[in-house]
Amino acid sequence: MPPSNLGRNEPRTTTVTPRSICFTRLLMNSMTWTRQRKVFYILERDRCTNIKSVGNPVTHNAHYYGAGAWMKDPLGIMGTETILVMANYESNYVVEEFENMDMFKVGVTRRKYTLPYTWDGTGGVVYGPYLYFNRANTPYIVKYNLKTEQEEARISMSGYTARNNYYAWGGYSGMDLAVDEQGLWVLWGSTGNSRRLYASTIDVVRNVITHNYALNTEQMSSMGNAFVACGVIYCIDSYNSRSTTINFAYDTKTGIQWNPNIQFTNQYTYNSMVDYNPRERVLYAWDRKRQVTYPLTFEEH
């Protein structure tokens, strides 16, 4: 047996394996992501007020699928201009990535991600290096690492029945993920709460549901869409009326509910996706094949 070097004044030799390098990189990436989330929250939370008005939609592109989701990473980890597209609401497991808006408009993809499962609905979101989506016909939210292209976690939604209660436009839209200044949310439907909307917060480090809100909305099947901004849940009355309103708001910080009666335009009369981007402070939407954004005006402090 060779003599031990312990206790001698000789440098220790550490064997570095590819596996240890990979783990270290993942750990550093996780730390960076956590730090950026905290910095973003601190910077944005003091700006938070209620939405005062929604501007007219700005059309950016058109897609051959009538329904779908498009988004940017609000933390900027995937690139501040990078666009991800989840086309259609079923039977698809390929996510397209575009370098910027110009490449998106001409249809030049930078990358394609093949997910391990198909998704339901148009409620997928990107948050940092992760894509979150509802695995088709299940009560699970899948956390997919876009850097490693691997499933990293699976979050179970207790009380959720797949393909049972969803927005008025249909499309298996019963689970709608959302991101705001406070973090990751899921808006979802159930046979409970008189089939009204539920909202839940997600701890993205522990990958668990942390808070549930049973909201006094109209039934989800009568609702156009919903989103979260500055900790306030907003519901849109119709998805197919050209002129409609945001007719419900609930502040999760104060517990106050009201009807803001904010005018909202479905320019192409089939709005299957509405999501808030807290970095840009605009709404992203997919309205009858068109990808649009809505400028927002917030109340003064």
Protein topology:
Blueprint: H1 18-45, E1 51-54, E2 58-62, E3 68-71, E4 83-87, E5 94-98, H2 101-106, E6 111-114, E7 125-127, E8 130-134, E9 140-145, E10 150-156, E11 175-180, E12 183-189, E13 196-203, E14 208-219, E15 225-229, E16 232-236, E17 243-251, E18 257-258, E19 262-265, E20 271-277, E21 282-287, E22 290-298
Antiparallel strand pairs: 1-22, 2-22, 3-4, 4-5, 5-6, 7-8, 8-9, 9-10, 11-12, 12-13, 13-14, 15-16, 16-17, 17-18, 17-19, 20-21, 21-22
Any overview of this molecule?
It comes from Desmophyllum pertusum. The structure is a single chain. The chain is mainly beta and 301 residues long. The chain is built from two helices and 22 strands. Strands 1, 2, 20, 21 and 22 form a five-stranded antiparallel beta sheet that branches. Strands 15, 16, 17, 18 and 19 form a five-stranded antiparallel beta sheet that branches. It has a four-stranded antiparallel beta sheet with strand order 3-4-5-6. It is globular, with a radius of gyration of 21 Å. The protein starts with 17 loop residues before the first helix and ends with a strand. The N terminus is likely disordered.
Write a concise keyword list for the protein shown above:
301 residues, mainly beta, 2 helices, 11% helix, disordered N terminus, Olfactomedin-like_domain
